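Journal club prep, notes for RB
We'll compare a predicted complex against what the paper describes. Inputs for the flavin mononucleotide case:
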Amino acid sequence: MATTTPSKPSKAADTARDNRAKLLERAMSRHSYSGDALIEVLHTAQELYGFLTPDLLKSIARKLRLPPSRVLGVATFYHFFSLEPKGEHSYIVCLGTACYVKGALGLLETLERRCAKAGRTSPDGKVSVNSARCIGACGLAPAVIRDGEIVGRLTPRQVTEDLDRIGVK
Amino acid sequence: MTIEELSDIQEQEQARQQKLANRIYCCTAAGCVSCGADRVRQSLHAEVKKAGLQEQVEVCGSGCMGLCSQGPLVRSAADDALYGHVSPEEAAALVSGNPVDRQLLAGKRIDTTAPFFALQHKIVLANSGVMDPEILNDYIAVGGYQALAHAVTELSPPEVIEEIKQSGLRGRGGAGYPTGLKWELVAKQSSQIKYVVCNADEGDPGAFMDRSVLEGDPHRVLEGMALAGYAVGAQQGYIYVRGEYGLAIQRLQTAIKQAERADLLGNRVLGTGFQFRVDLRIGAGAFVCGEETALIASIEGKRGQPRQRPPYPPESGLWERPTLINNVETFANIPPIIAKGGEWFASIGTAGSKGTKVFALAGKIVNTGLIEAPMGASLRTIIFDIGGGIPDGGRFKAAQTGGPSGGCIPEQFLDVPVDYESLAKIGSIMGSGGLIVMDESSDMVDVARFFMEFCMDESCGKCIPCRVGTVQMHDILARMTRGEGTPADLDMLEQLCTLLRETSLCGLGQTAPNPVLSTLRFFRHEYDAKLAASRGGAQ
Amino acid sequence: MSVKTLTIDGKMVTGIAGETIFNVAWNSGVRIPRLCHVGGVSDVGACRLCLVEIEGQKKLMASCMTNVEEGMVVRTNTERLQSHRRLILELLFAERNHICAVCVMNGQCELQDMAEELGMDHVRMRYLFPKLEVDTSHERFGLDHNRCILCTRCVRVCDEVEGAHTWDLKGRGVNSLIIADLGEPWGQSDTCTSCGKCVQVCPTGALFSKGRTVGEMRKDRRFLKYIVTAREKHQWIR
Ligand SMILES: Cc1cc2nc3c(=O)[nH]c(=O)nc-3n(C[C@H](O)[C@H](O)[C@H](O)COP(=O)(O)O)c2cc1C
Ligand code: SF4
Ligand code: FES
């Protein structure tokens, strides 16, 4: 399923790729290829591949014996699943009420202006912007998950500086 | 493990902990971790090693200790002292029993007789700060799984249900349906196969109670579910947990494995004939999946769209089998009720709302964090005494409860007791326990817009009133906040409120107007001021 | 088979246990408005036009999803219900692009009929007018998302009657869209059998046969009754 890379991949990358297919297969067989496990399988696929390509969805549909439209329907219903590759850096702005009350919209606005709309990646592939509904760090509001780490009590100014630092134009 | 072994382990573990010179608990909940609790814990471990005290001093994790705004929090068991804003450099002083060293920490010590602690009543959070959520024996040492042992050997399923009914416990997921009645409904069904589902999809923005319970005391939830399984005749349980809750998922996985290995879950629970297995299902970012029929669809691997009720899940739920769905906090209340009796639980709280409620305090409040108060405590007690009031000399304006399904409570109702009925009377709901405090700087029309945006984004799109109505309402509110609204807009807004409430398919659409309705009811002057301003601007 | 007697709009009617209020009402001449319901496939209760008042129940119930009960007192056409229905239609008309004058279904459209029947003659909201695609890649049929009201009749008929499950929904909320397979152009779908059932059940001009100009499209749903009777009663009669 992931054999359509144009550039010739190295051997190590090749085995890693095989491994991913094997791991995904194992996840499906663990659920006896039941269509009910679609969300579990999509979770695994996204973990392994980073995002869900049409080929990947097609092969999952075939193995779980589900209509392809149902697989895409599920993958696009849930915000957790991404059909696009992620950026080098990721910012997830918490828009929970506590963060909202403490000015999270200003942070998001800065990111959207400089990089991309929430849920998207900047055209240069540098930054993915996302929003979340309460990341549970209300005590640190407004909070952002930057490359997997929670950063609290941010200001738009700090975000701007941060973007400058990683070279966003 | 058998019941005798369970009691043996409890005694041995208690004795072992007694012998230690000290046990130091580091908060490992998300709030503290995000301000560096892990480094503190590592440094504590290093100091213990350096001092050669491995035999005497134990460093372990703990569930949320509540005062998240002062994290990282550390509790020293020997002198029952709680320290806040602890830095890794202070580890040595914490490990050392020497009073002079301890003196160095005096400034960091938190007064546990302060109202924040004294006015709380902990049932659900009782184990936070006194046990490590990742160690099964810790839970057993504080009496864990004794309620299950008691039930499977000495009580019949109807007796368990009777106890829950007597306790007056109501669902903590929002609607407040009497738990005992729900259990009875499921138990009555003749189906051979039934399911127990724990709703851990906590999606209200600003709510993190369930997360803290799962992270801080996962076995308690498993025990509650197993008791439910025993009572209603189910052998399989599912926990539907929010995908964003990585730590909670990890803790639950660990806990399930531990419990299975120890025969506390599985094919012969505590060596008896009772079987009960629990599996996790990870959500994928859809608020509506907290609604029970959408949650069922999601566990079945489908788009999380609700369906009409009836039939209610107790009759036809997961795979069309009778299904009991309860919230995390509801399950967490079950073991203490079975252990201490329904009567004990019913003695706490008010006439219609028994027990306690966990609240997540956030927004413009001094003590952001997690608290548990008896039902019927006033908002004033919760916000000003326990919560420490408004920071920076601000003035209280409103408290928001119930998230996007709830309402904003203004100052004149600060003395209303917090229980299901009283909150409903003033246009809000108990909700799942998020409590957000707003001060004078909050624009209430914008608050209403914020929640409408949330509902618009989270609407599943199945039914027209909610799918399009939320968009139109958000459109009107956004125009109003920009000062472009007209009186006709306001009129349409109110019509749409009624439409959504009365015609939407599920609770999301039905309650989406609540923040608008409650701000219109108590802060109508702010809407009027915006209209007046836009009229002025048009001239 | 047990028979249930109930009152619908003051009229005594009877239905069989397990029948919906909607069906019993229509059989006895009470035409409850509807858009997502189409006889022959399962119901979803999504459009909310068929909501009725049932005495003793606080909530309005979707009649297409609620079974008749003995002694029920149902009202299908109160002032409140009418005003709700009109507002729901307004929401629909404002959601995408429903300009009848330039639609192939003009004069044959169920959405248009509903609006006429319920007296919804103007829209007081802002039109959202999203720019959506028109998929004409299929050799015989076309799909205009701008006319789609997301009733999911096509999804259900394709799954339940044709058994192909070509259609489904993607996205959520107001961003939902009907998709064929993995969202590829309809003409490239592997699963589509080109049976055209979806086109016949679509209430609006969203799914249409090619080669018809404005106002020319006619839809024929008799096939559904034929198939359902054949399946349930083993009688192959038109
Ligand atoms: C839109 C919507 C979201 C909900 N979200 C949650 C949730 O996150 N957690 C929860 O426990 N209940 C949630 N509920 C309530 C559940 O549907 C259900 O009533 C509850 O889980 C029952 O458990 P309880 O009786 O223990 O409260 C939600 C309901 C609606 C309508
Ligand atoms: S009310 Fe909203 S969330 Fe609920 S079924 Fe309708 S569209 Fe979906
Ligand atoms: S016909 Fe019943 S809800 Fe649409």
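Talking point for the session: The mean pLDDT of chain B is 92.
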